[in-house]
Amino acid sequence: MEINVSFNDLKIGKFYDRNFLTELWGYKGRQAISKGVVTPANSNSIVLFVTKEKQRSLTQYEDYISDDYLYWEGEEKGGNNDRIINATKNHHPIHLFYRYRHHAEFKYMGIIKLASFIEKTNAPFKFIFNIASETIARPETFDEPEFLYGNRETERLSTSLSRIGQGKFRVDLLDLWDACSITDVKVPEILKASHIKPWKESNNFERLDPYNGLVLTPTLDTLFDRGFISFENKGQIIISKEIESYSKILNISPDMKLRKQFESNGHYLEYHRDEVYLKRFKSHL
Predict the structure, then answer these.
(1) Is 126 in a helix, a strand, or coil?
(2) Which of 33, 140, 186, 202 might form a disulfide with 179, Cβ 3.0–4.6 angstroms?
(3) CB under 8 Å, gap of 24 or more: what pairs does 8-16 form?
């Protein structure tokens, strides 16, 4: 049987299992596409099969989707790292099949684009892929003069680059904290990478410095970002009087504190207390 790895008969958003794809592409057995990275012979395509919750007997890579980005740990030995890194330059499309749990069908996500990667010496590389690249790329259907489109294009590029930078910041922050900085929640899809000194007030170094960040659940992230809570350098929470009566509903308490303390984030916490928390407090006096 001839091998023909084509994606023409697949629809983005539909679910497929490896048995179906084995037959569709003409492989003799599903073991040919059983790995996480498949590079079919006589094809420029790269196929990623990504499972969020893996079998316990397998290597537990940290792979998940958040905010239109796939966060994916590369292969243990990194055999395909170079090809993935150079995929865009070499015009090798990367196709994503994603599922939440093993033994389930994969959802075909279409072609994804590498946004960034973090090189590790004694661990798998960490890759960040944009899974909604068409929302960032300039639409080819428009035929407007550049002087009419230029500002919007610059704005889109700036937004794209800042999101990529925040993606790297998120990866480094999760490496630093392992879980929520307060509650120990370990579900990366719901955790927020929150800057201590706000992004707009930070310089380029501070924006990507993992010590300028906390990993927080959505409620805590909102409260922290808007100055309803802050933290002492030793990690003890500070709660605004505005929300003290709602503490039970918001599931916060004066006993909360940061799970870890770092000397390098002390000046960031001080900035947050003075410029975010106290400014909000003074504005309500």
Answers:
(1) strand
(2) 186
(3) 10/108, 11/108, 12/108, 12/109, 12/110, 13/107, 13/108, 13/109, 14/107, 14/108, 15/105, 15/106, 15/107, 15/108, 16/97, 16/105, 16/106, 16/108
> Chain-centre distance of CA 76, in angstroms?
20
Q: Tell me the two tokens of residue 113.
A: 């684009």
- How far apart are alpha carbons 254 and 108 in whole angstroms? 46
Per residue in 215-265, pLDDT tens?
A: 999 999 999 999 999 999 999 999 999 999 999 999 999 999 999 999 999
Distance CA 76, CA 129 (A): 18
Angle at 93 between CA 90 and CA 94, to 5 degrees: 120
| Token output for 116 | 């960034």
Structure tokens at 83: 């090809």
